[in-house]
Amino acid sequence: MLQVLDVNFAAVIVDRQGFLDGGRTYVLEGEGQPSQGWRIMCSVRWPMTSEQVREGDLTLVMPGGDELYGTLQSGTAAEITDDDGLVAAARLDLRFAITAGEGTLAAATGAARVTGTIAGEGEGTGGTFEGEGALLTVHLELEGIPDLTPHRPEAQIPPLDR
What we know:
By secondary structure, the chain is mostly beta strands. Helix content is 0%, strand content 57%. The protein has no helices and eight strands. An eight-stranded antiparallel β-barrel has the order 1-2-3-4-5-6-7-8. The two termini are 21 Å apart.
């Protein structure tokens, strides 16, 4: 039976690396909002020359410690600039295939879409968002798992258009 669930997260960038080719790797970690015991870790490698994100991994930890793992299938990341051309934020739209799980989620299959915004300060193109906040929504469509009803957050932030 297909189960659909949206979970909102408040996250921070815990690691950021820049590469000689202009690419960047970000690692985001956060907790579900309102806090229901959900946790997220998401890593993405974002080329400077493109909005297409081609590498990334997702780990979601449910209340109780069971985990889901996803591999990036497609995605975009776009810098948002202010009137002076300085990078003020980035908008993410990432699609992951759920490839594995642990505990009661070991047989999980499906998809996860991660959307949201990283807010930060920067100095023009390639500015840093490190240490700044991110608001993310994860839309899950899963099969092969126990009923998620007890783990649904009570309040929801409206997700971005699907």
